[in-house]
Design a protein that fits this description.
The structure holds two protein chains of two kinds. By secondary structure, chain A is of the alpha+beta class. Chain A has seven helices and seven strands; from the N terminus they run ββββααβββααααα. In chain A, α5 crosses α7. Chain B has one domain: 2-Layer Sandwich (archaeoglobus fulgidus dsm 4304 fold), CATH 3.30.2170. Chain B is built from eleven helices and eleven strands. In chain B, the strands form two sheets. In chain B, strands 1-9-10-11-7-6-3-4-5 form a nine-stranded mixed sheet, sandwiched between helices. The chains are: A alpha+beta, B alpha+beta. Chains A and B meet through α1 and α2 of A and β4 and α9 of B.
């Protein structure tokens, strides 16, 4: 899981931000991936991608009615036209002075800040800091598909660390012990990655 | 809401009351147009002779001049495969405004080049020309002339990057437009025209097909020709006022005559303004239905004579326009022309950005900066939602 520049920031708030990239950069971002926005001075914001969407426009709507779309037109629309892929990111923590916090950041990233995907070591470092404090941000997210997001995150992060995955699952059960419907939804999604 | 809808309502009632009678008149005129076309379509020598007689009576006559194909000619798109490169160019501009703090002009030209069947993304070329220190601020028509020349120059530069057959498209008529009435504007136009004619010659020398695409054209060159046919010798002096087919359009006629993807006969232009285009670059045109038989979409295509006389290149142009337009689905229009427009167009937001950047540059460099006018300032006030 090497680190890549996956896009630049379009808009941001304390609890989340939206990044955009050209379709030609579209290989890197994946649902559930941990990303970071370095803001200089040893400060960077971490987030999980919980939605990837591709906006349409009038021309694309018209082209889909035409049937035969040539390879040249396909590539023109994907590589040349300014139609960004947008990634919604849920803020899950930040790093300052080489210390990771699973808290909301003091300030969000700014327009056009570069967003990077985290490599395996960075993911492990973030996820292993503290006691899964960032799960509460995920469980509180209104717009994110929480079960699927947790499942994707556990799948990606726990690939090389089954012990972490088991501990993370136990933590989720603890956090959701008073919310049976939500717990069943999350466990159902986690069951699909077992 | 600033429209007086009471007045509009009264006027709409009047329009409604006249609609039926107007339609009846239009149908009678359309029937006459069809009859004339059916009777005289193949009589090419007589048609040309009639145009010549009418032109002698009124040198400002503007109508189609038939060549070798009958007026009701229609040909489907050729079966030969499309090859080579298709290029399209479009331009956009910011005209100097005395109401702004800094008066400047900007011409933005976009060219897109697509290599047929290459599976490659088209290549895009953009030229943005910002001018601030023009001694005499150019007028809107002067900017338009510069833009047209820039489109042609950029098309040529882009086309030269590719080997093989090249077809270049521009939006609008091929004839340069905008001859001013006063001396200075006319001199500027004449100079631009000479540059433009040289550019068209260069396209010919380099065998780059140039075509101007006029979607749903307003001018009715064929209808004017049919009107000329109805003239008796006694009526020739009153040619200017002779309009028995007023309201009947070439678009309507071609919509009836041309099947899906078909083109019409190639004609020349009988027009004083077109006389500057001589020899191999003399202007010709044909109509094309880029829609289907039930929903025709008629466009006029202007081409130079050397393309009109080269059957292979004419066929490739025909095929390119049909192929390109079909890409756009239910509203056919050449895809690359639309893309060239998308690339070239300067949005209001971009204009505001250039305004700000120029003002900032002038301020930082101790330049002269005017005050924005009260009128402009008032226009920029936030509107009520």
């Amino acid at each position: 899981m090497p680190t890549y520049e996956i896009g630049r920031l379009l808009r941001a708030g304390t609890t989340g931000f939206v990044a955009g990239c050209a379709v030609s950069q579209f290989d890197a971002p994946t649902f559930g991936a941990l990303v970071r926005a370095p803001l200089g001075g040893g400060y960077q914001v971490y987030g999980l991608i919980y939605d990837i969407h591709i906006e349409d426009d009038g021309l694309v709507r018209q082209l889909v009615t035409a049937g035969n779309i040539s390879a040249e037109v396909m590539r023109d629309n994907r590589e040349r036209r300014i139609v960004p892929v947008e990634m919604s990111v849920l803020t899950v923590g930040y790093e300052q002075n080489e210390q990771i916090f699973h808290l909301l950041p003091p300030r969000p990233p700014l327009s056009l800040d570069v967003i990077y995907s985290c490599d395996a070591a960075e993911v492990t470092r973030f996820a292993s800091a503290g006691r899964f404090g960032y799960f509460r941000h995920i469980l509180r997210a209104q717009d994110a598909p929480i079960g699927e997001l947790l499942a994707a995150h556990l799948q990606q992060t726990g690939q090389t660390n089954p012990a972490w995955r088991e501990a993370a699952t136990r933590e989720i059960i603890t956090l959701l012990r008073d919310d049976y419907p939500a717990l069943m939804g999350v466990l159902g999604a986690l069951g699909d990655i077992a | 809401m600033t429209i007086n809808f009471q007045q509009i309502y009264t006027q709409l009632r009047q329009i409604g009351a006249n609609a039926s009678a107007q339609k009846k008149t239009l149908e009678e005129r359309r029937a006459l147009a069809l009859r004339l076309l059916n009777e005289r379509a193949a009589d090419l020598d007589a048609l040309r002779e009639k145009v010549e007689t009418a032109r002698a009576a009124d040198a400002s006559l503007r109508c189609a001049l038939p060549l070798t194909e009958p007026l009701d000619f229609h040909a489907p798109p050729p079966a030969a495969p499309l090859t080579g490169v298709i290029l399209a160019a479009d331009g956009s501009q910011i005209v100097p405004s005395r109401h702004k703090a800094a008066q400047y002009s900007l011409i933005n030209v976009g060219v897109i080049a697509l290599q047929v069947d290459s599976a490659q993304a088209p290549e895009i070329f953009i030229e943005s020309d910002l001018r601030y220190d023009d001694e005499d601020l150019p007028s809107e028509s002067q900017i338009a002339l510069r833009r047209d020349l820039a489109e042609r120059r950029n098309l040529l530069e882009a086309a030269e990057r590719y080997p093989g057959q090249k077809i270049s498209l521009t939006d609008g008529q091929l004839e340069l437009w905008g001859a001013g009435d006063d001396g200075e504007a006319r001199r500027e136009f004449e100079k631009s025209l000479q540059d433009y004619l040289r550019a068209l010659q260069t396209f010919h020398q380099k065998e780059i097909v140039s075509a101007g695409y006029i979607d749903k054209p307003a001018a009715s060159w064929l209808m004017r020709l049919l009107e000329v046919l109805t003239l008796s010798p006694d009526e020739l002096p009153d040619l200017k006022n002779h309009h028995p087919l007023r309201g009947v359009s070439d678009v309507w006629l071609m919509g009836r005559s041309l099947g899906a993807g078909e083109r019409s006969a190639v004609s020349a232009f009988q027009a004083r303004s077109a006389e500057k285009y001589t020899g191999d670059i003399a202007l010709h045109f044909f109509y094309i239905n880029v829609g289907d038989a039930r929903h025709p979409a008629i466009a006029r295509v202007d081409i130079p004579r050397w393309v009109a006389q080269d059957a292979a290149r004419l066929n490739q142009l025909h095929l390119a326009l049909v192929t390109q337009s079909r890409l756009m689905g239910a509203r056919p229009f050449p895809y690359l022309l639309h893309r060239a427009h998308e690339i070239a167009v300067v949005s209001q937001q971009e204009t505001a950005q250039v305004d700000q950047l120029l003002e900032l540059t002038l301020r930082q460099n101790n330049g002269e900066l005017d005050e924005i006018s009260g009128k402009q300032s008032a226009k920029e006030l936030p509107k009520r939602k």
